[in-house]
Amino acid sequence: MSENGTLATLEQLFVPSRRRYKAVTLPVSGLKMRIQSLTEREVSDYQSEAMKKGGTGLIPARIRDSGPRLITRCAVDADGNRIMGPQHVHQLSEWDSADANHLHRECMDHCGIREDGIEALEKNSEATPVDA
């Protein structure tokens, strides 16, 4: 099989990655925000917060607040500093749903998180027996 181009070297693969940024305009409020990309470790940490200890299922409250939790990790100022923390998750849940859902989808897309990822976690969790 013939391949076009040159394959990446190990050195090229492990060059420290740079954050990517994107400006997003919220559809209802019209406010403009800046979001950042996340590393694979940061995405894994975010996703693992929804898992019970030992991976025996999902925490329903963490599934419900998954959108605001991701937004807090991605929302940054002009210098790339996070502007929100875990203490803002509840406040984000009080936003207009069109703005919140739009920003959540933009964060997911920008970070390469597939929408069916959480659904797969939920299905795998349902198949796991719960301790009595």
Q: Treating each run of at least 4 consecutive H or I residues as one helix, how many helices?
A: 7
Q: Assign the CATH class.
A: Alpha Beta
Tell me the helix content.
Answer: 40-55%
Give a quick account of the main beta sheet: strands, pairing sense, barrel closure.
3 strands, antiparallel
By CATH's scheme, which homologous superfamily applies? Answer: Phage tail assembly chaperone gp13-like
Radius of gyration: 18 Å
Describe the structure in your own words.
The longest helix has 15 residues, at 97-111. Residues 125-132 have low confidence and may be disordered. This protein is mainly alpha-helical and 132 residues long. The chain has a single domain (20-122), classed as Phage tail assembly chaperone gp13-like (rbstp2171). A three-stranded antiparallel beta sheet has the order 1-2-3. The relative contact order is 0.16. The protein is globular, with a radius of gyration of 18 Å. It has helices at 10-13, 40-48, 60-64, 66-74, 89-92, 97-111, 116-126; strands at residues 21-25, 32-36, 75-76. 43% of the residues lie in helices and 9% in strands. A hairpin with a 6-residue loop joins β1 (21-25) and β2. The protein contains seven helices and three strands. α4 crosses α6.
